[in-house]
Amino acid sequence: MQKPHTNHHHGLLQIHIAVLLAGGAGLFAKLLTISPMALVSGRTTFGCLALLIAAILTQTNLRLHGFKDLGALALSGAILAAHWFTFFLSIQVSTVAIGLLAFSTFPLFTTILEPIIFSERLHRRDVVTATTVTVGLVLVTPSFDFSNHLTQGLLWGILSAFTFAVLSLLSRSYTHKYSTISISLYQQGFAALCSLPLALQWEGTLTGRDLILLSILGVVFTALGQGLVVASLRHLRARTTSVVFSLESVYGILLAWLILREVPSTRTLLGGALICGAVVWASLNQGKPNAHA
């Protein structure tokens, strides 16, 4: 029997690898010269197949309780496709750093939407977090000229963050009914169905290298990453995983610097530090009582 501190260390290693993979997924938008929707289609197809194999091996129950749940998961799959499309497009038209930092603002949208959807109170610390993230976004914005490709990338990244926040809140309603693998499998399956018709409109041709990279993106950077998150939750608190996940943009920017030689500007780094710092602070204070709320 393993000691508690050993399990904790294993959990930390698993979640850090998962976040590293999540941050590295953005690099495929630069490594692959294909359309964003083709990227989404390839990622979800290979990811869905890998999750299906994992579900069979772990004997996960994939049966749904009714057509209402099927419809909700189909909707969340469509939103997932939109999320990944805007995420990859953001990086393709700008840089990995801007795309990841813009996406990391999704807690801002969650803060706004969650009290409305679930009738929960909005705490003062949530307002502080949202304000800090907004200031960070202003610093990350290279120009307020919408014709600037970097600004366009930031806006697409913000839309990606919004769709992810909606997806997270929609998924929250079903986490108590189905396993993570089951939810992810249905979401990615429906995302693949939604993205494939649009991906086929791309006039380019997939090479053998493209297929290999897409399979790596879907199996390693998507399905394996999801599995590591699930495994880490057996040993870590949800708050701990939230803090580590705030490092996604940090890992992604470091990988882009090492592999793609993308060096972010000082202003981008400063804005990113504010955004990441606000997310870490919010994660550390999640669940704590707020007497001034």
What amount of the residues lies in strands?
A: under 5%
Major pleated sheet = none
Structural class: mainly alpha
Low-confidence sequence ranges: 289-293
Helix content: over 70%
- Total count of domains: 1
Task: Provide an overview of this structure.
The chain is mainly alpha-helical. It has one domain (4-284). Helix content is 76%, strand content 0%. The protein is built from 13 helices and no strands. The protein has helices at residues 4-25, 28-31, 36-57, 67-93, 96-103, 106-118, 124-140, 149-172, 180-199, 208-232, 238-245, 248-260, 266-284. Helix 3 runs antiparallel to helix 9 (180-199), helix 4 runs antiparallel to helix 8 and helix 11 (238-245) packs antiparallel against helix 13.
